[in-house]
From TrEMBL:
InterPro entries: HD/PDEase_dom, HD_domain, HDIG_dom. This is HD domain-containing protein. It comes from the Archaea. It comes from candidate division MSBL1 archaeon SCGC-AAA259D18. Pfam families: HD (PF01966). Residues 21-119 form the HD domain.
Amino acid sequence: MLSQEKALKILEECGLPQGIVDHSKAVSKRAGEIAGEIEEVDEKQLKIAGLLHDIGKARCIGNGNDKPISEHSIESKKMLEEIDQNNLAEICEKHSFRILAKKDLDEYSLEDKILIISDMQTKGSEKVSLEKRYEDLLSRYPNDSESLKKALPKLKKIRSELESTMMKRGKGNKLDIEYNMVDFHEEQTLHRRIAGKLRTGEHSRSYY
Ligand SMILES: [Fe+2]
């Protein structure tokens, strides 16, 4: 397996914008935190997957990079296969909500689930609730709203599954920091709000 140092070097040298590098480091930290509370998973591997899950964006963003951003996780997979990291390649490919929207949850291992929730609780470098991140993605990728809508119930299911696994281990913490506090907007309200933002051009364009 790759060392943490080597993974960090790959991340920092693959030509990604600094925002995505910082996001990847934050996802790695979050994946390590969750994995640390679930004994049967490899914490080290998950931290590395966090660092490298978005490297495929290096082939989507910037001069001469023509892959659509929607395919970044497939590009991450290819890049990792090119360096013989097939296990990591599979976990990283599946972190995208676009892939989750199409796949059955049975096809996701515990590791896959931890990575996707870690990414879905990290907006830029900030730790946020799944709901906040969902809203963020919806505002930046309005063309992917169908995939997001399909992925949301699966994401919630993954969150509660991981949470009960953690509880069974005797860990008291709730997985989602704002889970109990957030007055989560009904999906309809959320979509109306996003539509308003889109109309006024308030949504931003960044690709983490
Ligand atoms: Fe990400």
